[in-house]
Fold this sequence. Notes:
By secondary structure, the protein is an alpha+beta fold. Helix content is about 30%, strand content about 15%. The chain is built from 7 helices and 9 strands; from the N terminus they run αααααααβββββββββ. The chain has helices at about 5-15, 20-30, 35-40, 50-65, 70-75, 90-115, 125-130; strands spanning about 160, 165-170, 175-180, 190-195, 195-205, 205-210, 215-220, 225, 235-240. Strands 1, 2, 5, 7 and 8 form a 5-stranded antiparallel beta sheet that branches. β7 and β8 (about 225) form a beta hairpin. α1 (about 5-15) packs parallel to α4 (about 50-65).
Amino acid sequence: MREGESVGQLIRQAREARDLSLEALAKELKLPVRHLEAIEADDWVALPPGRPRPLARQLAERLGVDLEFHTGAFQIVPGGQELEPPDPRRERLERIVMAVLTGASAVVVLWLVVPGPSLGHKPPPSYLVALSKPSLPPPPAPSASPYPVLGELLPEAPMNEQGLLVSLRAQDIADIRIEPQTAEGGPPMVRTLRVSEAWRFRVKGAFTIRVDNAGVVNVEVAGRRIPHGQSIGESWAGVFDGEGRWLRPAQPELPNEPIVPDEDEEVTRP
Length: 270
């Protein structure tokens, strides 16, 4: 090698020494002839980006040019640092390790998804079984006994020592006023009920219920529904005694009207 020879010159000299034409070498390596011409002319710009170093190394190996011996000339060839060629033994070892890991993963998934006697199936832990059961037992059936049973759900009593149970439920907006008739019943209670709103309370002694827009309010006193018969927009007032009985106002009696005889009839006189 003469001082200052380039990679292109080294490859051209090696090709001519083996009496190979550019066309024959290009056909053997399945490369365009123009690429070989660009390499021998050191015209690296004419080659595709990233290909000068791989093509130069391929030609050098075919023609027996040791580029490791000509390091200074090869460093002039443009391109980044070439990756280390893959090691077949290392690749084979990596494939074996991946196959073992894949098989182990498949066995674990099969053991979790399809448990059975052959896979060492064990019953679930006791705490998981406990969580699957309902936390509270169902309520017992109502007893036919007149005396309450411990744990039995009983309906609210219509009358007890706290007073009469009054239940009001509105289908639309309505104003309610409760006026106790005794000092024991406490002060008046006023409330506005909204749509589908209920109001339940207890009153001691006699009292009066006054309802604005009574046609949209259902009234129950001491467990009995009160048919007030009012329409939407009409007011209603009901008086109740200490036992929860509705004291309806007495209907006024109509006076007896005298019977007027017809003109055609003859009036008998004594």
